[in-house]
Amino acid sequence: MGIRTGREYRESLRDGRTIYVNGERIKDVTTYPPFQGTIETVAGLYDLQHDPAHRSLLTYPSPTTGEPVSLSFLLAETIEEVERRRRAEEFRAEATFGLMGRLPDFMNALVTDAAAAHAFLGQHESRFGQNVVRYYEQCREHDWCLTHTLVDPQIDRSKGPAEQTDPEAALHFVRDTARGIMVRGARMLSTLAPFSNELWVGPFYPRKRGEEPYTLCFAVPMDTPGLKFICREAYDSGRSAFDRPLSSRFDEEDALAVFDDVLVPWERVFINGDIEASNYMLGRAPGYTLLQAVIRGTVKLRFMAGLACHVAEAIGRTTAPHVQAQLGEVVANVELANGLIQASAQEVAASRRDSLRALAATLWVFIPQAQMRAAEVIRQLSGSGLIMTPTEQDFRNPEIAPYLEKYLQGKELDARARVQLFKLAWDMLGEQFGSRQLQYEWFYAGDPLFTRARFYHSPSVAQYKSMVDRLLQGKAL
Ligand SMILES: Cc1cc2nc3c(=O)[nH]c(=O)nc-3n(C[C@H](O)[C@H](O)[C@H](O)COP(=O)(O)OP(=O)(O)OC[C@H]3O[C@@H](n4cnc5c(N)ncnc54)[C@H](O)[C@@H]3O)c2cc1C
């Protein structure tokens, strides 16, 4: 119990879970070659907690045992405690370059948020509030890695789950049993599924009356009977770290979660048909999840800004004013996001939930946009360099290596280093890994276009309009 080592984490994945990739049942994810890079990356994060150089940054004493546990479970209340969370989360996001959206930190923060909202969850049935607190404590003490799945299958979005041609498709309650509730159906997606110990099923889109059977929140171990994960194709195709610097280490995977009559024990049920709890649960929480998401998204923006500058410098393009302006725009976006981290930390510490919600919405709009823009700038500044990237094997072939060394040099950069840099940029934007990253960030919190539209209805609009009215009426203040 307490913080795990990387080896213990790896061993914990050998649990008989049902995982399919490319039509094949993967009996042991720890030996499936395309998963090894990511398992290594996550295991490395667990090991960091034991490193004397980082232990005080990444852990705190368990309130129940006094042993070190991950700081991402800290129920932070003061600004100092929230700052501790921020520093630990920023450190782990930096260690993974912001490229893993579902670092264990994310779900640790969500479970901590849910535990902090336990009174609201248990307002109709107190046992559900108690269950979520107990579950949070288990996650903290066992140092589990969690995945989550929130969204109904994308069959016909013009209708709710109960109105679909097949109302059994979306995950739903089937019946009560003495030991728990039986559930059936599917949810999509579940990122990090093959690399997790537990699955959290939670609310996302608001539920309405009549959708009680679909209104669920619970958690189950990955090897629960009847639980199956059908993964998308893995992006690590066994190429070297030179050829695929990101796909080979950071592919989090995504899976369709199928519940083939899964029994959820009563002590693992947090919401069962309570629409109010489902729709407002996270709004009652301190906002640790939001803070983690902002930090991780900002760290990735920093990485993308660095990449854009490197690419332009590698081909000697930074003297052009329009190139400097494009790079400056990307850097300015990072500075704005850095400021938003500070603001989020302060709002969390002050428990200002309304302004936190507004801030969250701003971030769901701004961060995906800023990442899309950074990607566009990298593409535009790269030209053909993004494409003409021979492989490591090409550099090993003496018949062609001298040509590559001569013709693919950069400005003050040898050919190998220049190609390596552009390969990184292509993995970030063009390969399967990079394309998925863009899709992931855009839909991180639902479509940001809809979040944007909601701003038109925010109370501040009246204030902004009244300024114009004041001018038209010739009034000062
Ligand atoms: C790579 C990736 C990883 C993901 N990982 C996870 C995960 O780990 N866990 C998890 O729970 N979820 C995950 N998701 C799912 C994510 O939460 C959803 O993609 C997101 O909420 C959008 O839902 P959707 O995909 O069903 O798209 P939809 O909501 O169906 O949107 C599709 C299109 O419909 C449009 N649209 C029309 N009307 C509306 C409306 N009223 N509201 C909103 N949009 C509308 C949208 O603008 C959009 O263009 C992941 C998604 C991706 C792409």
What does this molecule look like?
Helix content is 48%, strand content 13%. It has 18 helices and twelve strands. A six-stranded mixed β-sheet has the order 2-1-10-11-7-6, with no helix packed on it. A four-stranded mixed β-sheet has the order 5-8-9-12. It folds into two domains: 277 residues, Butyryl-CoA Dehydrogenase, subunit A, domain 2, CATH 2.40.110.10; 186 residues, Butyryl-CoA Dehydrogenase, subunit A, domain 3 (Up-down Bundle). Strand 6 and strand 7 form a beta hairpin. The protein is globular, with a radius of gyration of 24 Å. With 477 residues, the protein is an alpha+beta fold. Helix 5 runs antiparallel to helix 10 and helix 12 packs across helix 17. The site of flavin-adenine dinucleotide (FAD) has 19 residues, from strand 5, strand 7, helix 16 and helix 17. The site of flavin-adenine dinucleotide has 19 residues, from strand 5, strand 7, helix 16 and helix 17.
